[in-house]
Specification:
The chain is α+β, with helices and mostly antiparallel strands and 368 residues long. It has helices at 12-41, 47-80, 89-133, 137-143, 151-158, 163-173, 183-204, 206-219, 224-231, 237-267, 320-334, and strands spanning 2-10, 278-281, 286-292, 298-304, 308-314, 339-349.
Amino acid sequence: MSRAAVIDYEAIGLETQAVCNLANNEVLKIDSLIENINKSATNIINDRIINYQKELIKEKRILIEAIDTIQKDAELLKQKGTVKSDTDYDEYQKRNELVEKATALKAKVDSLATNKILVIEELINEELINIGNLAKDKLIRESYGQIDIKADVLEKINQLPDLVVRESALLLLRESENKELDFLELVKKAEERLERLTEELKTKNKTKIINQIKEDMVKAKVDNEIIEKTIGSTDNIDSIKQNATKEIINEEIRLESLKIILKTIRDRGFIVDTKKNIKINRESNEVILVAQKATGEVAEFKIYLDGKFVYHFDGYEGQACQEDLQPFLEDLENIYGFEMEEQSVIWSNPDKISTQKYQAIDTKKGKR
């Protein structure tokens, strides 16, 4: 018997975990930055540097809380079992909400890497340099924020939730032409100044940022050709980071999907030569895996990133194909949280046909 079909599936757990892994990497980078501050500052830490550290710790806490929430939500959805149709709106809504949380976390990680962390690091470096060079009492007072500011304006500035905006506003107030600005005008000017500073820092540190992005992609085992293509796709640092994040997540989903299917079919008695029988086409986001039983039956899988895989079971007699196929699908659903949405049989033939061609059908077109 020879049988081929397309399975539409959702493996939200894979994507959300990939995003959480990215966020965890950013947490490690924040820890590294804090450690470097402590090493550099040693005996010259002042209140402003302590505040910078607190801001970094706050961002770290936000990331950790988001990671924890997403992972718990993903586990709850997995435990609820498979959603069988579009009519199960509540469950689809929960899955959509989980995707939205993961998307927001991904955007947060990208923004931190190429914007806020970059600015905080620069402010810290400037502060350390300034403290080391201070000699006059007036400058020392200014370094600690003791400058002549209207009390009501200072109170409002200190209530701003974002430290880097607060710092930008305080720096502006060191300039005499800004001391008469009202609070809203000052905040607007501070945000504009911060935006210019961020862009300047991206230009100044472009090589460093690009190297870090490359390092992250290499660590994620993204193909070298895709890395170079991503890096050279634009001059905009934010876009490069976003594209790199997408490729890192895609690579993790691809590899994890492959591992899951590989383990499942091995558990069902198939043998796979990973050196010869697994091929990855990153241009088409396709992984081809061929497995065989000692008795001669063959299973071929084409796994895609758009939410489907194609299976082709060949060399079976009668209904023996179903004896391998159904447990395989049940394992994917029950053990790994793959949500099987639709199965479309491309063709089925009672004869042993190993040369007949088949094509993948994208059954998701037109769906919700």
